[in-house]
Amino acid sequence: MNNFEVVFYEKANGEEPAKEFLLSLDEKMRIKMLRIISLLETNGIKLRKPFSEHLEDGIFELRAQFGSDISRIMYFFFYGGRIILTHGFIKKTQKTPRKEIEKAKIYRDDYIKREG
Length: 116
Description:
Blueprint: E1 5-8, H1 17-24, H2 27-43, E2 52-56, E3 59-66, E4 69-78, E5 82-90, H3 98-115
Parallel strand pairs: 1-5
Antiparallel strand pairs: 2-3, 3-4, 4-5
């Protein structure tokens, strides 16, 4: 039994950016990312590189690579062992783009405002 629950962030309009990203991935990458999400659910905050990395201010990224493709899903921890997956993107550069970190923070603030 694990103490963590992975939840997809849902925007006010019902969109779930992380789930939509996951569904957009090709099958092999999706399977790999789902395996890493499962590791996150089991290990929570203890999950580290190469699967997870803390970026800044409580924002983390899940990391999956298949061939030359690199996928990332941003997330944060919430009360009660909830892990909120905000959104995902295909990584093109060495560093995680600033706008992706900012987007995760905006989604986190919205989640906290609506979930309390």
